[in-house]
Design a protein that fits this description.
- By secondary structure, the protein is mainly alpha-helical.
- It folds into two domains: 47 residues, no CATH class; 54 residues.
- The protein is 72% helix and 0% strand.
- The chain is built from four helices and no strands.
- The relative contact order is 0.10.
Length: 115
């Protein structure tokens, strides 16, 4: 069963339970339409909160990829220019390692920090 179908089943059950209460002024025939509307609005919010979006939709992933490209370009430029200053290489290598670590953390994370 897909994540979407699990989410929709839970929403349908919740809406049906609410509509079944006598104090709720809604018809039971409206349950599917209400549940579909709620699911459409809440699914992207849950996906984002759970870090479940595809990798190519992650701002963290793209930021890290751009940092890796820029750092690799910096190291390549230093090598091509014949720079021997170790501090310059260490700075670029630190950014490269940090970005790689960010990608690793983003791809293996199962939940946001603090949860």
């Amino acid at each position: 069963m897909s994540k979407t179908s699990i989410l929709k089943a839970a929403i349908v059950a919740g809406v049906a339970a609410a509509v079944a209460r006598p104090e709720v002024a809604a018809d039971k025939s409206a349950v599917p339409e209400i549940a579909e509307s709620v699911a459409a609005k809440i699914e992207p919010v849950i996906e984002y909160a759970a870090n479940a979006e595809p990798w190519y939709q992650s701002n963290v992933t793209w930021g890290a990829i751009m940092t890796i490209i820029a750092s690799a370009g910096t190291i390549g430029g230093l090598l091509q220019s014949g720079v021997t200053d170790g501090e310059a290489y260490a700075t670029a290598a630190g950014a490269l390692i940090g970005a790689a670590w960010t990608l690793y953390g983003r791809w293996v994370a199962k939940r946001p920090l603090g949860r």
